[in-house]
Amino acid sequence: MNVLAICAHPDDAEIWCGGTLAKYAKRGDKVTIAVVTNGEVGSPSLPKEEIAEIRRLEAIAAAEVIGAELIWLGFRDEFLFDTEETRLSIIEAMRASKAEVVLTHWPDDLYNPDHTITGQVSNDVAIMTTVPNIVTSSPPLAKIPIVYFIESVAGLGFQPEEYVDITDTFELKQSMLAKHESQVGDWLKDQYGSNAMEMIEVIARFRGIQSGVRYAEGFIRAKAYPRNITGSLLP
């Protein structure tokens, strides 16, 4: 199966669904991570161009931990809007990865507008990926991908409807996040006083308690005609 995580910033996929992506990869699915913005504001001291390139290289290294491919869309960090360009870029990411399952931000994640826009646009355009008259570099998909929304930051307001047991891939999730050295060791602590490594363990343990395992990640599936399903496509 072809799995695509579309997230706003470098490190978002690793923090909120890295264990699930690792689980897909371990069972042999093709995993792609699309990063929508370039992360150019994510440093207290480095200029935009320099930190954006650092973060791009970190994202590549993190994807390589599980053998995933990276798509870098390169929109301006913190200034993402629902425009024709944004929609076409996300449609192309879905088509280029031949996505059957898309993991993206919950549109009600109010932590950051880039999260909100990424989740909303990704869900909105999924139905457009099969339409021939909407032209991008890659051909239309044969089938509309199924969209799952990932955890909100700190889990605020988010009540999962499905859980993935990531007990056996939690260390891979940690390894992926560790590649984002500029964020784990610098920016997140400076800006928010946040220990990202601690946060992912606390939330994964909490979701694990809810679902009866050691560590878990929670999801809500987008339910919309004509792309609803029975069962689950989560690993």
How would you describe this protein?
It is a single chain. The chain is of the alpha/beta class. The protein has a single domain (2-221), classed as 3-Layer(aba) Sandwich (Rossmann fold). Helix content is 41%, strand content 17%. It has seven helices and seven strands. The chain has a seven-stranded mixed sheet, with helices on both faces. Helix 3 packs across helix 4 (113-126) and helix 5 (170-178) packs antiparallel against helix 7 (196-211). The N and C termini lie close together (11 Å). This is GlcNAc-PI de-N-acetylase.
Fold blueprint:
Layout: E1 2-7, H1 12-26, E2 30-37, H2 48-65, E3 69-75, H3 84-96, E4 101-105, H4 113-126, E5 146-150, E6 162-165, H5 170-178, H6 181-192, H7 196-211, E7 216-221
Parallel strand pairs: 1-2, 1-4, 2-3, 4-5
Antiparallel strand pairs: 5-7, 6-7
